[in-house]
Design a protein that fits this description.
One of its GO terms (cellular component) is cytosol. The protein is an alpha+beta fold. The protein folds into two domains: 161 residues, Glutaredoxin, CATH 3.40.30; 50 residues, Antioxidant, Horf6, Chain A, domain 2 (2-Layer Sandwich). Helix content is 29%, strand content 25%. The longest helix has 17 residues. The protein binds benzoic acid (BEZ).
């Protein structure tokens, strides 16, 4: 079954993009990476998504996350569509976006990466690409995967929030609770013994008493 599971290494595919030919691992380098796919160029939901992604590019860059999009059309179409995306954002209608778009006109990558949405088809009855979000760590392993159908636009605020959570786990060994937002307290992971947690989190570890008497609900202020 094609597709990617958490922990899988990113495939080192070669592809044409709006910023030239890439090899995916070289593109990622030592950075985090986000690959987000789109059903088709010149479609309304996709245009709003890429517009928002372009506006948020400085936020991804601040977090050391390289962005790359994919849509099942040609580079030429992507470049023409980019003008519409910039115009939608109220910018000059140039063909420059702050990230490349992969051309996958024959759906080769979309199939390989398990991105097709069987419910949304083109005029010839061929499935379009779903809205996949893959986030890779600097080790090129898949850290997060979200799959939306073609008809639901993504929430890029949520995507930035999960990047913040993934990076806190990677660098500070904490987990983030339900509806966590940057600045909120975070959770000590269950595998960390109390003594080590006290040393690792000098701002303190706060336990919530529970009817079971088990001391697993441990919070600490978000580490710097
Ligand atoms: C869109 O981007 O607007 C779209 C694409 C495919 C199916 C439905 C909506």
């Amino acid at each position: 079954m094609p597709g990617l599971l958490l922990g899988d290494e990113a495939p080192n595919f070669e592809a044409e993009t709006t910023q030239g030919r890439i090899r995916f691992h070289d593109f990622l380098g030592d950075s985090w990476g986000i690959l987000f796919s789109h059903p088709r160029d010149f479609t309304p939901v996709c245009t709003t998504e890429l517009g928002r992604a372009a506006k948020l590019a400085p936020e991804f860059s601040k977090r050391n996350v390289k962005m790359i999009a994919l849509s099942i059309d040609s580079v030429q179409d992507h470049l023409a569509w980019s003008k519409d995306i910039n115009a939608y954002n109220g910018e000059q209608p140039t063909q420059e976006l702050p990230f490349p778009i992969i051309a996958d006109a024959n759906r080769e990558l979309a199939v390989k990466l398990g991105m097709l949405d069987p419910d949304e088809q083109d005029k010839d009855g061929i499935p379009l690409t779903a809205r996949v979000v893959f986030i890779f760590g600097p080790d090129k392993k898949l850290k997060l995967s979200i799959l939306y159908p073609a008809t639901t636009g993504r929430n890029f605020d949520e995507i930035l929030r999960v990047v913040d959570s993934l990076q806190l786990t990677a660098y500070k060994k904490v987990a983030t609770p339900v509806d966590w937002k940057p600045g909120d307290s975070v959770m000590v992971v269950p595998t960390l013994p109390d003594e080590e947690a006290k040393k690792l989190f000098p701002k303190g570890v706060f336990m919530k008493d529970l009817p079971s008497g088990k001391k697993y609900l441990r919070y600490t202020p978000q580490p710097e």
